[in-house]
Design brief:
This protein is an alpha+beta fold and about 140 residues long. The chain has a single domain (about 5-135), classed as 2,3-Dihydroxybiphenyl 1,2-Dioxygenase, domain 1. The protein has three helices and eight strands, in the order E-H-E-E-E-H-E-H-E-E-E. The chain has helices at about 15-25, 65-75, 85-95; strands spanning about 5-10, 30-35, 40-50, 50-60, 75-85, 105-110, 115-120, 130. It has an eight-stranded mixed beta sheet. The longest helix has 10 residues, at about 15-25. The mean pLDDT is about 95. Bound molecules: zinc ion. Zinc ion binds near residues 10 and 81.
Amino acid sequence: MKPTHIEHIGIAVKDLKAAISYYENILGLTCYAIEEVTDQRVKTAFFRVGETKIELLEATSEDSPIAKFIDKKGEGIHHIAFAMPDVNEALTNAKENGIQLIDEKPRKGAENLQIGFLHPKSTFGVLTEFCGKNK
Ligand code: ZN
Protein backbone atom coordinates (compact mmCIF):
# COMPACT_ATOMS: atom_id res chain seq x y z
CA MET A 1 0.00 0.00 0.00
CA LYS A 2 1.27 3.45 -0.79
CA PRO A 3 0.08 6.95 0.07
CA THR A 4 -2.07 8.76 -2.48
CA HIS A 5 -0.65 12.17 -1.50
CA ILE A 6 0.66 14.18 1.41
CA GLU A 7 -2.52 14.83 3.37
CA HIS A 8 -1.04 17.56 5.52
CA ILE A 9 2.06 19.00 7.10
CA GLY A 10 1.74 19.70 10.82
CA ILE A 11 3.53 22.79 12.08
CA ALA A 12 3.95 23.59 15.78
CA VAL A 13 3.43 27.26 16.60
CA LYS A 14 3.37 29.26 19.81
CA ASP A 15 0.77 31.76 18.71
CA LEU A 16 -1.94 30.37 16.45
CA LYS A 17 -3.43 33.78 15.70
CA ALA A 18 -0.10 35.25 14.59
CA ALA A 19 0.68 32.18 12.48
CA ILE A 20 -2.75 32.26 10.81
CA SER A 21 -2.18 35.88 9.93
CA TYR A 22 1.15 35.00 8.29
CA TYR A 23 -0.37 32.21 6.17
CA GLU A 24 -3.29 34.39 5.15
CA ASN A 25 -1.55 37.69 4.55
CA ILE A 26 1.83 36.64 3.23
CA LEU A 27 1.00 33.36 1.49
CA GLY A 28 -2.53 34.34 0.53
CA LEU A 29 -4.10 31.14 1.88
CA THR A 30 -7.45 30.98 3.66
CA CYS A 31 -7.89 29.41 7.06
CA TYR A 32 -11.04 27.30 6.52
CA ALA A 33 -11.25 25.62 9.91
CA ILE A 34 -10.11 26.01 13.49
CA GLU A 35 -10.62 22.97 15.64
CA GLU A 36 -9.68 21.96 19.14
CA VAL A 37 -8.60 18.34 19.60
CA THR A 38 -9.12 17.97 23.33
CA ASP A 39 -7.39 14.62 23.89
CA GLN A 40 -4.24 15.99 22.23
CA ARG A 41 -4.57 19.33 24.03
CA VAL A 42 -4.09 21.27 20.80
CA LYS A 43 -5.89 23.85 18.78
CA THR A 44 -5.49 23.39 15.03
CA ALA A 45 -5.95 25.69 12.04
CA PHE A 46 -6.21 24.37 8.48
CA PHE A 47 -5.28 25.76 5.08
CA ARG A 48 -5.57 24.05 1.71
CA VAL A 49 -2.66 24.10 -0.72
CA GLY A 50 -3.81 21.96 -3.65
CA GLU A 51 -4.57 18.49 -2.31
CA THR A 52 -2.35 19.04 0.70
CA LYS A 53 -3.18 20.96 3.85
CA ILE A 54 -1.13 22.94 6.28
CA GLU A 55 -2.16 22.14 9.86
CA LEU A 56 -0.99 24.65 12.43
CA LEU A 57 -0.83 23.29 15.97
CA GLU A 58 -0.92 25.37 19.12
CA ALA A 59 -0.77 23.80 22.59
CA THR A 60 -3.78 24.42 24.82
CA SER A 61 -1.99 23.24 27.96
CA GLU A 62 1.58 22.89 29.20
CA ASP A 63 1.48 19.10 29.12
CA SER A 64 0.37 19.08 25.49
CA PRO A 65 2.68 17.11 23.15
CA ILE A 66 3.00 20.33 21.13
CA ALA A 67 4.17 22.33 24.17
CA LYS A 68 6.79 19.66 24.84
CA PHE A 69 7.89 19.67 21.22
CA ILE A 70 8.34 23.46 21.18
CA ASP A 71 10.25 23.34 24.49
CA LYS A 72 12.67 20.83 23.01
CA LYS A 73 13.00 21.90 19.40
CA GLY A 74 11.30 25.26 19.02
CA GLU A 75 8.59 26.09 16.52
CA GLY A 76 8.61 24.35 13.16
CA ILE A 77 7.57 21.26 11.25
CA HIS A 78 6.13 18.75 13.70
CA HIS A 79 4.93 15.92 11.48
CA ILE A 80 4.11 14.84 7.94
CA ALA A 81 0.84 13.05 7.25
CA PHE A 82 0.45 10.67 4.34
CA ALA A 83 -3.02 9.93 2.98
CA MET A 84 -3.46 6.15 3.12
CA PRO A 85 -6.28 4.14 1.56
CA ASP A 86 -6.49 2.03 4.75
CA VAL A 87 -4.85 3.39 7.92
CA ASN A 88 -5.31 0.19 9.91
CA GLU A 89 -3.67 -1.93 7.22
CA ALA A 90 -0.86 0.61 6.76
CA LEU A 91 -0.09 0.57 10.52
CA THR A 92 -0.15 -3.22 10.65
CA ASN A 93 2.12 -3.43 7.66
CA ALA A 94 4.62 -0.96 9.17
CA LYS A 95 4.65 -2.90 12.43
CA GLU A 96 5.23 -6.19 10.66
CA ASN A 97 8.24 -4.57 9.07
CA GLY A 98 9.77 -3.60 12.41
CA ILE A 99 8.67 0.02 12.58
CA GLN A 100 7.93 1.34 16.08
CA LEU A 101 4.35 2.62 16.27
CA ILE A 102 2.91 5.29 18.54
CA ASP A 103 -0.62 4.14 17.66
CA GLU A 104 -1.18 0.42 17.30
CA LYS A 105 -4.69 1.07 16.06
CA PRO A 106 -6.16 4.04 14.19
CA ARG A 107 -7.81 6.71 16.32
CA LYS A 108 -9.93 9.73 15.55
CA GLY A 109 -8.06 12.90 14.60
CA ALA A 110 -9.04 16.36 13.46
CA GLU A 111 -11.56 16.60 10.61
CA ASN A 112 -12.99 13.26 11.70
CA LEU A 113 -10.23 11.34 9.93
CA GLN A 114 -8.66 8.09 11.09
CA ILE A 115 -5.07 8.70 12.10
CA GLY A 116 -2.10 6.74 13.42
CA PHE A 117 1.46 7.81 14.18
CA LEU A 118 4.79 6.10 13.60
CA HIS A 119 7.62 6.82 16.02
CA PRO A 120 10.30 9.19 14.68
CA LYS A 121 12.98 6.79 16.00
CA SER A 122 11.93 4.39 13.27
CA THR A 123 11.35 6.95 10.54
CA PHE A 124 14.62 8.84 10.26
CA GLY A 125 13.59 11.58 12.65
CA VAL A 126 10.28 12.53 11.07
CA LEU A 127 7.15 12.02 13.13
CA THR A 128 5.00 10.31 10.50
CA GLU A 129 1.22 10.15 10.44
CA PHE A 130 -1.02 7.93 8.38
CA CYS A 131 -4.33 9.54 7.70
CA GLY A 132 -7.47 8.34 5.99
CA LYS A 133 -11.23 8.24 5.83
CA ASN A 134 -13.15 6.04 8.21
CA LYS A 135 -13.54 2.53 6.83
ZN1 ZN B 1 -1.60 15.63 11.63
